[in-house]
Each structure stands twice: as C-alpha cells, then as structure tokens.
C-alpha cells in the first residue's frame, strides 16, 4: 500500500533541476525524499566523502591500538620500547599525511 497518495507536479528551470539533483545526491537522498525533508524543515547535511569515512576508520583503528597498549601497560606496570615507538610515531605521521591530503586539495 502506497503511503503517499497525493501526486504533486511542479516546474523547474534547468539551473534549479541541476541544483536539486546535486544537493539530493550530496545528501544521499533521492529528489523526492530531499524535497519532503526540506518541506518538513529538516536540516539536510551532505554525506561524508569517501576520504572522510576512510579518515574516521583509520583514526578509530589508531585509537583502538593505543587503548590496547594502555590497558596492557596498566596491567604490566610499564611500556615496552616498541609500544612507546608506536604511540610516538603513528599519530603524528597520520596527522601529517591527513594535512597533506587536505592542503593539496586547496
């Protein structure tokens, strides 16, 4: 059973159609969902890019590794050299690589 039973037609010019298509794609919605969401007053945001999703996954992995090291250090009472080296090098290296990606786009 169709939830929406009222058909609404309206006209757009070429520029408006292009904007509707671009904005709905960036939001991850089809054009109808985009229009309905706009009418309801929802604040529509762009979906994260593939690059941002990769960044979030990578930073989550690094944080998880550091947390595991911290748990081991708390149990053992000391940190091994390889653990300290990982903590000292991984995050700064990741930040530098991310900054290069960000600034190379501008």
Write the layout of secondary structure elements.
Elements: H1 14-27, H2 31-39, H3 50-76, H4 81-105
Helix pairs in contact: 3-4
Give Rg in angstroms: 23 Å
Gross morphology: elongated
Beta-sheet strand percentage? Answer: under 5%
Instruction: Report the end-to-end length measured between terminal Cα atoms.
Output: 49 Å
Figure out the total of helices. 4
Report on the biggest sheet.
Answer: none
Number of strands: 0
Q: Overall pLDDT, averaged? A: 89
Structural class: mainly alpha
Q: Tally the structural domains.
A: 2
Structural features, described:
By secondary structure, this protein is mostly helical. The chain has two domains: 38 residues, no CATH class; 56 residues. It is 71% helix and 0% strand. It has four helices and no strands. The longest helix is centred in the middle third of the chain and has 27 residues.
Tag the structure with descriptive keywords.
2 domains; 71% helix; 4 helices; mainly alpha; 106 residues; elongated
Short description:
This protein has helices at residues 14-27, 31-39, 50-76, 81-105.
């Amino acid at each position: 059973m169709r939830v929406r039973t009222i058909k609404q037609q309206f006209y757009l010019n070429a520029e408006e159609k292009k904007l509707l298509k671009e904005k709905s794609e960036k939001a991850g919605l089809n054009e109808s969902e985009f229009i309905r969401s706009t009418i309801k007053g929802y604040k529509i945001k762009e979906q994260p890019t593939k690059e941002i999703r990769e960044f979030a996954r990578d930073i989550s992995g690094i944080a998880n590794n550091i947390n595991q090291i911290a748990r081991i250090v708390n149990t053992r009472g000391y940190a091994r050299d390889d653990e300290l080296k990982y903590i000292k090098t991984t995050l700064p290296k990741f930040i530098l690589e991310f900054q290069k990606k960000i600034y190379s786009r501008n």
